């Protein structure tokens, strides 16, 4: 399992008139955490896109258990639990003060800029697989 | 089954650098469609909130099959397929030119402004149930 | 003067915990109105971008006089008051029930996809100028 | 002059199809920086709101000189240049690699939750004024 921890401060702009963080914004937090997990594997999402690899979201899911509020210090625990094949899944836990507030996952694949499904770059596969072999 | 059709024009601000509508924004489209479905049942979400009823999202899910683009005229087909109990679920289909691009659902419950789960207002239950009885 | 009227329904997602539409979202409303003004001149912003013309925002300004709320039916009065030269300016008035809530403007220029300033396409100049000559 | 430095990583969700950070999102960055400036003066915006003080935006302005991109490490230099009276103004400079990309300002006042203009809390005035006297 590959894991990563990301800290996010909840923004005022992210709240809605219910006085809590708007549910749609959690998917942005998932993305920030996902990109950081890749960064920690030395995989730059920015560079991937420049090399004509896009990683669109095929599916996104979130279960909201407890709200979070403006100025909260949010912890996102991110993990890839199974070696990627054509698709890969990332799981997320959103916590505030060690309390689990939201869980979710996203499912991804690789396409090129024309929208054609392609294999992930060798480097990506190697870095990810190296991690799973280690265990 | 209760159904509703909503038309949305994809905004420039809703795109990302992949050149498509950012995945997180579909949950806002779902919400617009959900609120319109309630409007068509003569249930004003704005009024519900003023009467101390909040309808938070417990779960949100979207499956992205095809991208949508800036300026696309989007159709959202919204439906409530089963009579609400403590929770209720709303289903969504996002289409462009009759082509299904995204499907999704959200799960909801009623709480008051203190966050305490409460029964939906009588009026809400009656209007929704009336619809299911009709059929 | 070229003018246009756009109607927008304030979205729940656009509110913040102050219970009003978040100030940053007015710039998205300005954009929707600006694109509609161009549409009414038979200038498709989408097509312009495909032809390698981008119209970035050089400056954006808004003066917030009265708040707007979720579900409000917003009217945006958009106008181009002077013939465009290298730059062009668009002015906006945001009204709710004929009450002026926000005024603002944006300043624009034309660049190509490499970021190089370029002349606007002939068609754009002709359509805009035709309008100013008419008057 | 009161000054503060804030670091922000540009999010993927903040880009648009022009491949740059969407202009409307700079106002969210201004807000993050403004709240941090207050934090550094030991003024919690969150606490102010709980004490029934709101600080809405009366005016917002941004001049976009150079674009910023996904994953850029952004520096926001924030300053209050004149002692607040009924209104107060905050100025911003957005830099990437020491290059000035955007400048802007926001103008604010204090209201209570009913929307009535009120004096800022004593603590706020004292902390701000103390700073200007020091100099």
Question: What report would you give on this structure?
Answer:
Four copies of one chain form a homotetramer. With 135 residues, chain A is α+β, with helices and mostly antiparallel strands. Chain A has one domain: Thiol Ester Dehydrase, Chain A (Roll). In chain A, 25% of the residues lie in helices and 33% in strands. Chain A has three helices and five strands. Chain A has a five-stranded antiparallel sheet. In chain A, β4 and β5 form a beta hairpin. The longest helix of chain A has 15 residues. The radius of gyration of chain A is 16 Å and the shape is globular. Chains in contact: A-B, A-C, A-D, B-C, B-D, C-D. Chains A and B meet through α1 and β2 of A and α1 and β2 of B.
What overall geometry of chain A do the principal axes of the alpha carbons give?
A: globular
- Give start-end ranges of low-pLDDT stretches of chain A: none
Just name the CATH architecture of chain A.
Answer: Roll
Total helical segments of chain A: 3
Elements of chain A, N to C (H/E): EHHEEEEH
Rg of chain A is 16 Å
Number of E-state strands of chain A: 5
CATH fold-type name of chain A: Thiol Ester Dehydrase, Chain A
Mean pLDDT across all amino acids of chain A: 95
What's the CATH superfamily of chain A, by name? Answer: Hotdog Thioesterase
In the sheet with the most strands of chain A, the strands line up as 1-3-4-5-2
Biggest interface reads: A-B, 22 and 22 residues
Head-to-tail CA distance between termini of chain A: 8 Å
Overall number of structural domains of chain A: 1
Strand content of chain A: 25-35%
Determine and state the CATH class of chain A: Alpha Beta
State the helicity of chain A in percent bands: 25-40%
């Amino acid at each position: 399992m590959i894991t990563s921890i990301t800290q996010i401060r909840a923004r005022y702009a992210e709240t809605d008139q219910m006085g809590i963080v708007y549910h749609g914004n959690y998917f942005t937090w998932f993305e920030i955490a996902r990109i950081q997990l890749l960064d920690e594997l030395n995989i730059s999402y920015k560079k991937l896109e420049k090399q004509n690899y896009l990683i669109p979201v095929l599916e996104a899911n979130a279960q909201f258990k407890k709200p979070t509020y403006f100025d909260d210090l949010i912890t996102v625990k991110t993990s890839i639990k199974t070696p990627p094949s054509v698709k890969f899944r990332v799981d997320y836990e959103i916590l505030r003060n060690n309390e689990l507030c939201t869980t979710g996952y996203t499912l991804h694949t690789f396409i090129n800029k024309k929208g054609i499904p392609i294999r992930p770059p060798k480097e990506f596969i190697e870095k990810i697989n190296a991690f799973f072999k280690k265990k």
